[in-house]
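In full, the data:

***
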Amino acid sequence: MKIKPNLYRINYINQNQVYELYAKQIVTDSLLGFMSISGILFDLSEGVVIDPIEEQLKHEFKDVEVLHIPLAHVLKVEEVKHKKSCKIKPLKPNAVVTPLSNQPGPQQ
């Protein structure tokens, strides 16, 4: 039986926008208070631009090996079976996002 590798959908806030990315690996213990994301996946289509948002994200993260996101900006992480298009959505002006009160690790 072939074991399928993990695939994660990560939603996080970046400059009043919600980014939705897909990645092969996420780790929360490499940098205190950050989620490290590696193996970011994009559609492999060459030539015709099918999804301009996906192309924008592909260009933005083209040289990124590991993306470190503050845990307070992470909205949701899901383990999924299939990749869909990556997205950028505006953060709704009346959205209530409650940051974590305490970050992991020693408190000062």
In short: The chain has one domain: 8-90. The mean pLDDT is 83. Strands lie at 8-14, 17-27, 34-41, 66-70, 74-79, 87-90.
